[in-house]
Amino acid sequence: MVEDDSKLSAAERKALKERTAELRKQSGRKGGNRKERELQDAIEAIEALPEPDKALAQMVHEVVSEVAPDLDPKTWYGFPSYARDGKVLVFFQQASKFDERYSTLGFQTIANLDDGDMWATSYAVMADTPDVRKRIAALVTKAVS
After folding, report:
1. Which of 23, 103, 135, 141 is the most buried (most CB within 10 A)?
2. CB atoms within 10 A of CB 61
3. CA-based angle 124:38:145, to the nearest 5?
4. What is the pLDDT of residues 14-26, one digit of tens each?
5. pLDDT for residue 23
């Protein structure tokens, strides 16, 4: 836990509190029902988003579910995310969360995106277009390979 949170913004402090509550909620889940509840949490998180974040998060959910059905939807810091063996691989960070200009598709270190000495792990997402869907599908496919 952060000892001196005076350097965190109000939005960051709120996100930490939400994550703590999320972890408490998830820790009590066991067995096959756990994945179903975490999927429901992700769907509810998407449904609760304001537009255009909601439409973009839904698009990401559709693409990830199609190209990587073995990933488990869940929430992570309130973000819709997709995990392998309990570790988040890819997530959607809505612009409205931190009052940003654009939403972001992000990948964690378990994603297999390595490309030499430097590669991107975060992508701005501004619209749901066939090209954007194709690019997300390619990134997720590579990330899970």
Report:
1. 103
2. 19
3. 55
4. 777 777 777 666 6
5. 66
Residues in the chain: 145
Residue 50 has what DSSP assignment?
P
- How many other CB atoms sit within 10 Å of the CB of residue 104? 18
**Token duo for residue 94:** 């809505």
Give the separation between CA 145 and CA 120, rounded to whole angstroms. 16
pLDDT in tens, 55-74: 999 999 999 999 999 999 99
How many distinct helices (H) and strands (E) make up the chain? Answer: 4, 5
pTM: 0.80
d(CA 118, CA 63): 25
> Which pair of tokens denotes residue 33?
């029902």
